[in-house]
Amino acid sequence: xxxxxxxxxxxxxDLDDAGSVVTWAEAVRAASLGGVADVVPAARTVxxxxxxxxxxxxLATSLRGIEPATAGPGAPTADADEIVVRVRYDGPxxxxxxxxxxxxxxxxxxxxxxxxxxVGFGGFAPGFAYLVxxxxxxxxxxxxxxxxxVPAGAVGLAGExxxxxxxxxxGGWQLIGTTDAVLWDLERDPPxxxxxxxxxxxxxxxxxxxx
Amino acid sequence: xxxxxxxxxxxLALVQDGGRPGWSAIGVGRSGxxxxxxxxxxxxxxxxxxxAAAIEVLLGGFEAVARDGDLWVAVxxxxxxxxxxxxxxxxxxxxxxxxxxxxxxxxPSAGLRSYVAVxxxxxxxxxxxxxxxxxxxxxxxxxLAAGDRLPVGPTPTAYPHVDAVPATAYDDEVLLxxxxxxxxxxxxxxxxxxxxxxxxxxxxxxxxxxxDGAAMSLADPRRQLPSEGACRGAIQVPPSGEPVVxxxxxxxxxxxxxxGVVVDxxxxxxxxxxxxxxxxxxxx
Lengths: 211, 284
Prior knowledge:
The complex is a heterodimer of chains A (211) and B (284).
Chain A (H helix, E strand, L loop, with lengths): L1 E5 L3 E5 L3 H14 L4 E6 L3 E6 L5 H9 L17 E6 L6 H8 L2 H11 L2 E6 L6 E4 L14 E4 L3 E5 L2 E4 L4 E3 L2 E5 L20 E6 L7
Parallel strand pairs in A: 5-13
Antiparallel strand pairs in A: 1-2, 2-4, 3-4, 6-7, 6-13, 8-11, 9-10, 9-12
Helix pairs in contact in A: 3-4
Chain B lengths: L2 E7 L2 E5 L19 H10 L8 E5 L3 E6 L3 E7 L4 E3 L2 E3 L4 E4 L4 E4 L7 E6 L30 E3 L22 E7 L11 H4 L2 E3 L7 E5 L15 E2 L4 E3 L7 E3 L6 E2 L3 E5 L1 H7 L7 E6 L1
Parallel strand pairs in B: 12-20
Antiparallel strand pairs in B: 1-4, 1-11, 2-3, 3-10, 4-9, 5-8, 5-10, 6-7, 6-9, 12-19, 13-14, 13-20, 14-17, 15-18, 16-17, 16-19
């Protein structure tokens, strides 16, 4: 763990893996340090943004003193929320992912539903969550060309991540399925269905034709 | 309830306040006024409480009428000429707007964004604790349009201490201080940031100011950076080599290396640079 300045108002903490990011970001929030405006977990880092007028050097010292419990993405804390997301595996890139991974279509579905994922971080759009800790055989590159329109509810894969598009947007992930889950709703408190640390289990929803 | 009724929005007029910090983990950035100092000054001229919502007007053209009572307004930021009814008025001063009178902002002589504050604040419903429009996340009050009726909050108990303050000067020479970013080794030569005369691209907005100039070279174009958190003022260098200075509505996380970070106090100035205007960076 290394704390470095990020401009004159923020600090960036380098960590080893996605799981450490989740536990470390939780530990920073739990510590309720003075002068912290926002904690931004990402793939291998946590950015800590200070409030106006905060002593950033003192904040760096406090951050270096935080020692979160070690837990990987496959070992969520016992009290983590578990969210079940029903998916129809009907995405336009499912066949390509089946080829790229060598798993075949049924193998992709089995791998995607076979073990729980965990919300690592957000950021692409409100309610978008980068899910980590899934089956490593599902690692596929982004599509060479992003689609200009990906529908809301599309379930995708890219690199070590899986994710669900909260609303219609452009996107370059490989789309393997669709869900009716509502990822973002400002009338709901909190508005995001998937929040860092939550555990997500994908379940295959049979289509009417198959059922 | 007194209100400000929008007659014309100009190119873009948005409700803005101090933003919504603390939601990055679910993908929502802070947003808020792009030039925070000018926004705060407009509120201070009217003795508004900290965080009262105002209107951020891009390149003038905004017109509004006082409804259901008299109002006090103040305009700061890009110094637009003001008209109240048929009278000329000054920016950087508290200005009375009688019921039924029309406030009109001309095109500012310099700068990009003017702030129209109203005593009592714009009292539209907050979203996640803020009345700011985030153009990237598409949350908060929609861009203003003719016919919008903006309720004005209760008159503050405090009285203004000054009638007018000197207008901010927006010189042609823009120089922004920058500290080295966490990924300055991802470009072949980070010093190119400070040795190049950049121009703000016409493609700039509240998300970021894109810089045209001699493109920077990535040290290894094939290397992929895992997504990292970003903050206002961060200078990202995408594969095109043209840096982007992140502004109020920047994405919460991004995968482009941050080579430098504009000193926080200078980010407000960055938000006032006009497309095509030259600017230089220097190491702080």
